[in-house]
Write a structure and sequence with these properties.
By secondary structure, this protein is α/β, with parallel strands linked by helices. It has two domains: 145 residues, Nucleotidyltransferase, domain 5 (2-Layer Sandwich), CATH 3.30.420; 184 residues, Nucleotidyltransferase, domain 5 (2-Layer Sandwich). The chain has 14 helices and 14 strands. Strands 5-4-3-2-1-6-8-7 form an eight-stranded mixed beta sheet, sandwiched between helices. Strands 11-10-9-12-14-13 form a six-stranded mixed beta sheet, with helices on both faces. Helix 10 crosses helix 11 and helix 11 packs across helix 13. The protein is globular and about 60 Å long. It binds adenosine monophosphate. The site of adenosine monophosphate (AMP) has 13 residues, from helix 10 and helix 12.
């Protein structure tokens, strides 16, 4: 079956067409600046050059039409419309309602709407993508794959905040966690690579990209993760603070005369390694270059980042009563031997050692721990689109 995977943002739409038999990507691309001047679709059919078409896309309906046109046109199309057997949608927030992927119907759409106040920037955009696909491909089954679902196995002691319990009951204020599709995919793949049953493993997955989160996966189930009610909690990220004392918000508001919205923007968009490096960059490639040239800001930012990751690894080892393997994934985790090396240097308390040669790996599955390491360190590239396609196929075959 050919499966179209859609990841819809407020002004962008990423897509991949995946063959569920071979799991090969037939075509992938991106619609940018939807609803804004200068919109374009950029896509790459497998084995061909990148194609760019600049055309007005006033809304997501037009974007989906352009995706279908790109996939089916006579000149460089890769599929006939009727061959697209199902569509898998990445949905950011499933609240407590969704513990796994589901076939989309009106009831599911209503439930996604109901939890939209938990992800006001993302869920509405995801829903627009669903409606647009319904219009352009009526009758084709669609599946919702939630970023939060994998973390729904967290026990109450891990997901509750120390707030009055009534706030959880009334408003659902709790820790949900995100990047769940990635944590699920990487933990399963790590078990395969280790040749062990996931039910016998204690794994820590470090998803270190522009957004970063870490999870403790015991016996195949997530028992804790670093993101919370929103993706702001946890690790220091590209531009997000991660954990801070909530009193900082009021303190900054008073000092700067700013609004809650201003400070929320600061915490999400101007902080993290970007803010710590004095706005040098949120990109680890720039930070590493500057670090190696002796830039103090870059060193400060990267050191705070690697310290926080190691601290979480320590706490999750305590939460699971040990750890068998630590997996690195996403942009930084897959590609940066430098940052991985700095994190692993902080893990000697676990008896972890790194094979410096193996740690040069970029974007490939590889064990990077030394022969004498007491814990396996591994790079496992994530593949959220493939995970979405697999779930979609399972529910629609
Ligand atoms: P992601 O959000 O998973 O797409 O990760 C994006 C981030 O990965 C970028 O902002 C960079 O910080 C980082 N990244 C990508 N490639 C490299 C690389 N070769 N070395 C260091 N960091 C990288």
């Amino acid at each position: 079956m050919k499966i179209l995977v859609i990841n819809c943002g407020s002004s962008s739409l990423k897509f991949q067409l995946i063959d569920s038999d071979s799991e090969a990507v037939i075509c992938k691309g991106l619609c940018e600046r939807i609803g804004i001047d200068g919109s374009q679709i950029v896509y790459t059919p497998a084995g061909k050059d990148k194609i760019t078409k600049v055309e007005p896309m006033p809304d997501h309906n037009k974007a989906i039409e352009m995706v279908i046109e790109a996939l089916t046109n006579a000149e460089n199309g890769v599929v006939k419309l009727e061959e697209i057997g199902a569509v898998g949608h990445r949905i950011v927030h499933g609240g407590e309602k969704f513990t796994k992927s589901v076939v989309i119907n009106e009831e599911v759409i209503k439930a996604i709407e109901e939890v939209s106040d938990l992800a006001p920037l993302h869920n509405p955009a995801n829903l627009i993508g669903i409606r647009a696909c319904e219009k352009v491909m009526p009758g084709v089954p669609m599946v919702a794959v939630f970023d939060t679902a994998f973390h729904q196995t967290m026990p109450q002691e891990a997901y509750l905040y120390g707030l009055p319990y009534s706030y959880y009951e009334k408003y659902g204020i709790r820790r949900y966690g995100f990047h769940g599709t990635s944590h699920s995919y990487v933990s399963k793949r790590a078990a395969e690579l280790l040749g062990k049953d996931i039910k016998d493993l204690k794994l820590i997955v470090c998803h270190l990209g522009n957004g970063a989160s870490i999870s403790a996966v015991k016996d195949g189930k997530c028992i804790d993760t670093s993101m919370g009610l929103t993706p702001l909690e946890g690790l220091i990220m590209g531009t997000r603070t991660g954990d801070i004392d909530p009193s900082v918000v009021e303190f900054i508001m008073k000092k700067e005369g700013s609004t809650v919205a201003d400070v929320t923007n600061l915490l999400n968009k101007k902080s993290g390694v970007f803010g710590l490096s004095n706005d040098l960059s949120s990109d680890f490639r720039d930070l590493e270059d500057a670090y190696l040239k002796g830039d103090e800001g870059a060193k400060r930012a990267v050191d705070a980042f690697t310290y926080r990751v190691a601290k979480y690894i320590g706490s999750y080892t305590a939460a699971m009563g040990g750890v068998d393997a630590i997996c690195f994934t996403a942009g930084v985790g897959e590609n940066s031997g430098f940052t991985r090396g700095l994190i692993c240097e902080r893990l000697s308390f676990l008896g972890a050692t790194v094979d410096a040669e193996a740690n040069k790996v970029r974007g490939e599955e590889k064990t990077i721990s030394g022969a004498d390491s007491k814990v396996t360190l591994m790079v496992v590239p994530t593949n959220e689109e493939l995970a979405i396609a697999r779930d979609t196929f399972e529910l629609c075959k």
